[in-house]
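Hey, can you fold this one?
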Amino acid sequence: MASFDNISFDDLPYEINKYIYDIACLDNTPLYNYRMRFINRNFKSIVDNHNGKICRHIDDNDLDKLISFNKGNIQMFKWLFDHKIYLNYKDVSCLISCHRIDILKSMMKYDNNEKILFNRFYLSDCNILENFSIFSFGNVNRSFLLLACECGNLEIVKFFLEAPKKKIYMVQINAALDICFINDRFNIIKYLYDNYKDKINEKKLEKIRKIKFEFI
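Sure. Predicted structure:
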């Protein structure tokens, strides 16, 4: 009787490895399906060129997601998006906390992702600050724009306020300033003052004028 104890994936032909992946990817998490490309050269080609179904109902655990949001390359996220694995509200908040402007920009190419980025449901009402907890970040702002201000990331603030669907965030300019005042985000205050002065209420304009910045 033949023994297969010492046979590895490297010993198997490409077609067999592909068959194994086609079956395995239907019952594993999205990140695990992508990571199978690191098994060997054949699997790298198989995963990169896979255009069939993959499992979308099993979610990755929070730790794996956090690592991917912090360190994952953009090619991995493009692969996930192309296979209809989209990000949810909690995922986007983590991306902002990890300063991943590159992934946020990549999300704009996919309607399902864009609907998450620009959704009125996730906005706090005007100046009301609302908090919730994500992973190990503790309490953070519910609004993506306010969270970007809290994290001090001007590029992400610009991303939301300069996008084609930026209108939904315009009601939060004053709330964004509240966050910036609390956290000394002077570069974001300057940006908001220079570009959205007409949206800022008089009380906050007066407060800005009292701050002795070189840029005002």
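The two ends are 84 Å apart (CA to CA). Let me know if you want another pass with a different chain boundary.
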